[in-house]
Design a protein that fits this description.
Radius of gyration: 21 Å
Structural class: alpha/beta
Largest sheet: 7 strands, mixed
Helix content: 40-55%
CATH superfamily of the largest domain: Type I PLP-dependent aspartate aminotransferase-like (Major domain)
Oligomer: single chain
Number of domains: 2
CATH topology of the largest domain: Aspartate Aminotransferase, domain 2
């Protein structure tokens, strides 16, 4: 047989999905496994949104739509961006795709030429680095530190820019760290991108999940010059517990939106018409469920962080948004637990799932090899049980 695509065969499998599959397998075997791997709200899609999807089926809204999404949905997205962030976009600047991940992929395909460099702050979401490579780009990873709250500095950004740099991906709030760039921090980074004529793909899918009364700043709101360099990505998955409906979008200058629409037209075309109708209701309907889920996540965060920081040999920063905690393993690496030598985050994650049936994601997947990511998108009783098991495990460290 002829050789398969070198680009495709070089793609690493998703670590988060692999962990989730292991967790589901253990559950199917009747084991009392606890899953903290996939970033997916444990709430159901709100009733009024589900009803809109059902109504779309009953009204036979089951045919193709424009590749960039229905006019109604693009108008609803413009409405939501205005209400939530004070941003003014026109429907022609909105491109709907099959989830926020798909929106990032389409944006990269439409911006990059082979060999273009993409600045990627670490820790980063697992898919970003593979998406860049899939699109012919070269990832340039900027390390951030625990001491800097997992945020890059303007000085680090400047040092990473070369003649080949095309854009930066910014995930704010961050998956996996949960940290948020404040307005001044964001402005400092965005000004550098404008100065060097770099695009910013700003993945703001967790913008609805910001805690402690902190304000959220969308990078596109920082001025017209910055907005003109920004491809803002968001969607319905986290805010409205609609992961399986597969609706994301990009808001960008119209010339970019047109190219993205053309690309979609010859690849996937538009997402499900039924899902688009449900998303209209999500964006225009009651936002009470968003507040309810936000408050529940904040309470879970507080509990997990308090418990984790009270356990010997592990610690974490208190995340400011999203629904993840990065657990520091500095005091564990090099030690032995129940006969297992811990040399890496992957080793610890393996021991945790083998010995205590708690599935997490090792930090290597995020460019953070001394950390474990926990998701608190699960109920408090499950979090409590997992913290008890973690505490038991850590008592056996030698």
């Amino acid at each position: 047989m002829k050789e398969l695509s070198r680009i495709a065969t070089a793609i690493a499998p998703s670590s988060t999905l692999a962990i989730n599959n292991l967790y589901k397998q253990m559950k199917a075997e009747g084991k009392d496994a606890l899953g903290f791997g996939v970033g997916e709200p444990d709430f159901n899609t709100p009733e009024h949104i589900k009803a809109a999807g059902i109504r779309a089926i009953e009204e036979n809204q089951t045919r193709y739509t424009a590749a960039a999404g229905t006019p109604e949905l693009r108008e609803a997205i413009c409405y939501r961006l205005s209400q939530d962030f004070g941003l003014t976009y026109r429907p022609g600047e909105i491109t709907v795709a099959s989830g926020a991940k798909h929106s990032v992929y389409i944006a990269l395909q439409c911006l990059l030429n082979p060999g273009d460099e993409v600045i990627l702050p670490a820790p980063y979401w697992v898919s970003y680095i593979e998406l860049i490579r899939m699109c012919g780009g070269v990832p340039v990873v900027i390390e951030s530190t625990h001491e800097d709250d997992f945020k890059i500095t303007p000085e680090k950004l400047k040092r990473a820019i070369t003649a080949k740099t095309k854009l930066m991906i910014l995930n704010n709030p961050s998956n996996p760290t949960g940290m948020i760039y404040g307005r001044d921090e964001l402005k400092a980074l965005a000004d550098i991108c404008v100065e060097h004529d770099l695009y910013i793909i700003s993945d703001e899918i967790y913008s609805c999940l910001v805690y402690d009364g902190r304000p959220f700043t969308s990078v596109a709101s920082l001025g017209e010059e910055i907005k003109a360099h920004t491809i803002l990505v968001n969607g319905v998955s986290k805010a409205y517990a609609m992961t399986g409906w597969r609706i994301g979008y990009a808001a960008s200058p119209e010339q970019i939106a047109k190219v993205m629409s053309n690309y979609l037209g010859h690849s996937t075309a538009a997402p499900s018409t039924i899902s688009q109708a449900a998303a209209v209701e999500a964006f225009r309907g009651s936002q009470e469920s968003v507040k309810m889920m936000h408050d529940a996540f904040e309470e879970r965060r507080n509990y997990m962080v308090e418990r984790m920081n009270a356990i010997d040999h592990v610690s974490c920063l208190k995340p400011e948004g999203a629904f993840y905690v990065m657990m520091n393993l500095d005091e564990i690496l090099g030690h032995t637990i129940r006969g297992h030598k811990i040399e890496s985050a992957a080793d610890f994650a393996s021991v945790l799932v083998q010995e205590e049936m708690v599935a997490t994601v090792p930090g290597e997947a995020f460019g953070a090899d001394r950390y474990i990511r926990w998701s608190y998108a699960t109920d408090r009783d499950t979090i409590c049980k997992a913290m008890d098991r973690l505490e038991d495990l850590m008592r056996d460290m030698e």
